[in-house]
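Homework help board

Subject: predicted structure for assignment chain

Our instructor gave us this sequence and asked us to write out the predicted structure in token form, then describe one feature. I got the tokens but I'm not sure how to describe them. Can anyone check?
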Amino acid sequence: MQKFSRQQNMLFKYFKNVNFPNRYISPKKLFLYLEENYGEEIQEIGKSTLGKPIYLFSKGEGNISVLAWSQMHGNESNATLAMLDLLTSLEKNPVADFWDKIRLDFIFMLNPDGSEIWTRRNILEIDINRDFLKESSIEMKILKKQAFSKKYDYALNLHEQRTIFSTDFENPATLSFLSPSEDVDRNLTENRKKSMAVIAEIYQQLKPEIPNNIGRYTDTFYPTSSGDNFMKAGIPVVLFEGGHFIDDYKREKTREFYTKALFYALQAIGNLKGEVSGYESYFEIPENKESHYDIIYRNVRLNTDFECVLDIAVQYKEIKTKASEEIEFIPYVVEVGDVGKKKGWKEIDCTGKKFVCDKKYPKIDAPVEFQII
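My token output:
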């Protein structure tokens, strides 16, 4: 197996696709862009529940076939942006032999109905990623038809994760990866080793840039999920999860690192050719820790008739309105009481300060309506 060198690492230069500056991507805008710029490399492979086209982008002359898909969950746009950025980056700074080793089939925006209204599920409220067996959604039928239409050597299942995860209780899990299990016992099969070897290479390449921000997602077996079942069906699956980076709720830095991870994954697949050398390094990646809230207000004294001092934990909800072309972040109360076992990416000590609100106490699952002065 050809090992990567530092020199090869420097070959890839990141360029952002300026046509898509926001986290939110309009399906119509994406489809027009793909038709205008990659008309000869895309084909429509189906339509969503509401009749929106779902496109397959195909590129590469290699013998190693890779299937990847983005926005299975409509509010997880980083993979779509990363693929657009990867194409832009390779057009501006071509990497020799990159497309000679692989053949990539990339399904852009598998869930365009959910993507348009910025929701995880499809328009029928089905979580497509938990619909592998039942096939209640048109979108899962389309994905499975493509996946089993030919022999794919690898699959990339591309997602995003919440801001609650860290790698070490201190640093956010900006990227997390997983080699999904094929069974409840999480046996270490040959297919899992193949995907672990790819993840190990991504980790080695990105560790110099973000040494404390790469995590390993739980390998608990999910019997209805796509990654576990494609793995079970014989396709080595690499799961991507794009996460939080400090002060980066629009995920600009995450987008950049996601793009690089996608590049290194495809490069590793082309070089490994199914080998599992180095897969053991996968276990060096720290497991995700569910450790954080977005904001914690510590030691808040409420305006009650008795002494009541507590913590208030807040998470941002991502809201898309028709008036805006970008996501808005609305703070919601998610926990009150003693949240001493968790941390906040931002922490505010309210000792000696006043809780100002029309109500005596904050309400869980409601927007933040109080002030601390």
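Reply (TA_rk): Your tokens look well-formed. For the description, you could write something like this. The first helix runs from residue 6 to 9. That's the kind of observation they're looking for.
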